[in-house]
Amino acid sequence: MDDLISAAREAGSTAYAPYSNFQVGAALLFADGSVVTGANVENASYGLGLCAETVAVAKAMSSGTRGGLEAVAVTGPAHDPITPCGRCRQVLNELAALGGTDPDVHCAGADEVITVKLSQLLPMAFGPDSLV
């Protein structure tokens, strides 16, 4: 968990956050041991910004990773632990559902980490199986 959180913090240091100055990093751990990271990318048209988790999922999916998501770490500059937003919970759920996993989500603040299952953050999620 510590290494994954460190990877997320490092990713967050590359965030493009000139409007909020709220740098978020995310790291995804897969069953094969690989880690994919992402950082938030803001845009002057605020609604077009990308969250760190979404960037990491897009990187993973575009490289062909379709399953085996075991854990997620999300970090930010806040003192208290931060959790993925609703959109990111849905995006993470899609990736996890492709491999049939329910990953741990490590929500890190400056001094505290809360770990919860993705299914706790997004109960009764809509996913690929919902379309059958």
Report on the structure:
- By secondary structure, this protein is α+β, with helices and mostly antiparallel strands.
- The protein has a single domain (2-125), classed as Cytidine Deaminase, domain 2, CATH 3.40.140.
- The protein has helices at 2-12, 52-62, 86-99, 118-121; strands spanning 25-30, 35-39, 69-75, 104-108, 113-117.
- Strands 2-1-3-4-5 form a 5-stranded mixed beta sheet.
- Strand 4 (104-108) and strand 5 (113-117) form a beta hairpin.
- The longest helix is centred in the last third of the chain and has 14 residues, at 86-99.
- It is globular.
- It starts with a helix and ends in an 11-residue tail after the last helix.
Distance between the termini: 35 Å
Helical residues, percent: 25-40%
The level 1 CATH classification is Alpha Beta
Helices and strands, in order, run as: HEEHEHEEH
Shape: globular
Number of continuous helical runs: 4
Low-confidence stretches: none
Secondary structure class reads alpha+beta
What is the oligomer described by this structure? Answer: single chain
Largest sheet: 5 strands, mixed
In terms of DSSP E residues, the strand content is 15-25%
What is the CATH H-level superfamily? Cytidine Deaminase, domain 2
**Alpha carbon gyration radius:** 14 Å
- Whole-number count of domains: 1
CATH architecture: 3-Layer(aba) Sandwich
Total strands: the figure is: 5
CATH topology: Cytidine Deaminase, domain 2
- The residue-averaged pLDDT reads 96
